[in-house]
Amino acid sequence: MATKIENDEVIPDEELNKIIEEMNNEEDKRLKVIVDEYQQLTKGGFFVLDTETTDLVGEVVSFSLIDDKNNILINEYCKPTRNKISKTAQSIHNISNKMIKDSRNIIPIYEDFLKIINTEENKNKTIFIYNEGFDLSTIYRSLNYAGYKYKENNDFDDVEFRSRCVMKDFAYYYGEHNEYYDTENYKWKKLEFAANYFGIETKNLKLHNSAVDCYLTLKVIENIRDHFSGRNYG
């Protein structure tokens, strides 16, 4: 027997089965890499962080932090120093300038964040972020605009060192190649796509709410970590 494929090439079934087996082996190897890594990174607990912003290149207007049990540790609005919320951003996260006018600015919120993550119990825990580069750059910009005085050893460097981008990790896990864009040729996916892929219902959730996005990111982390155990967190 033989199989005809798209370009009209005929491949014997035995050879085709071998190709499929090799592809499956490569996929298993790729999955094992990321699953093993997540099992290590999540041992002993971890954090999930998310922000909402004034715009694509703007300041933080909502800051949320949860732990691995989905306990909400920080969840509050943040008053930006220089920027107003753009109409486009407001249409996405539904946070208005009026809603944040009496909120704290980024500095005390960030200091609360540092106190939580740097206790003796927590100081080695990973901080997971979906689209790490975007959130960290926005936090850093917000701190600079607000005149934050960094510690001698630059506390933000430690935050960057401990953070992990779930968006890039899910792209690697999902395995959709993109020869033109994205790190290591894997196509980045939106958080909603990643959550839906694991059967996590998002239809009735308030997406682009930083606490909700933390929760969805947590579920994506759990599903990647537990891939080989067959558990479903949807």
General description of the model:
By secondary structure, the chain is of the alpha/beta class. It has a domain at 47-164: 2-Layer Sandwich (Nucleotidyltransferase, domain 5), CATH 3.30.420.10. It is built from 8 helices and 7 strands. It has helices at 13-41, 87-93, 106-117, 132-146, 155-162, 166-174, 191-197, 210-225; strands at residues 2-4, 10-12, 47-53, 60-67, 72-77, 127-129, 163-165. A 5-stranded mixed sheet has the order 5-4-3-6-7, sandwiched between helices. Strands 1-2 form a two-stranded antiparallel sheet. A hairpin with a 4-residue loop joins strand 4 (60-67) and strand 5 (72-77). The radius of gyration is 21 Å and the shape is globular. InterPro entries: Ribonucl_H, RNaseH-like_sf, RNaseH_sf. Residues 45-230 form the Exonuclease domain.
Secondary structure elements and their pairing?
Blueprint: E1 2-4, E2 10-12, H1 13-41, E3 47-53, E4 60-67, E5 72-77, H2 87-93, H3 106-117, E6 127-129, H4 132-146, H5 155-162, E7 163-165, H6 166-174, H7 191-197, H8 210-225
Parallel strand pairs: 3-6, 6-7
Antiparallel strand pairs: 1-2, 3-4, 4-5
Helix pairs in contact: 7-8
As a percent range, the share of helical residues equals: 40-55%
Number of strands: 7
Beta-strand content bin: 5-15%
Low-confidence blocks of residues:
none
Instruction: Please tell me the CATH architecture of the domain at 47-164 by its name.
Output: 2-Layer Sandwich
CATH class term of the domain at 47-164: Alpha Beta
Cα-to-Cα separation, first versus last residue: 41 Å
Task: Write down the overall geometry.
Answer: globular
CATH superfamily of the domain at 47-164: Ribonuclease H-like superfamily/Ribonuclease H
Named CATH topology of the domain at 47-164: Nucleotidyltransferase, domain 5
Radius of gyration: 21 Å
Main beta sheet strand tally, sense and closure:
5 strands, mixed
The assigned structural class equals alpha/beta
Number of helices: 8
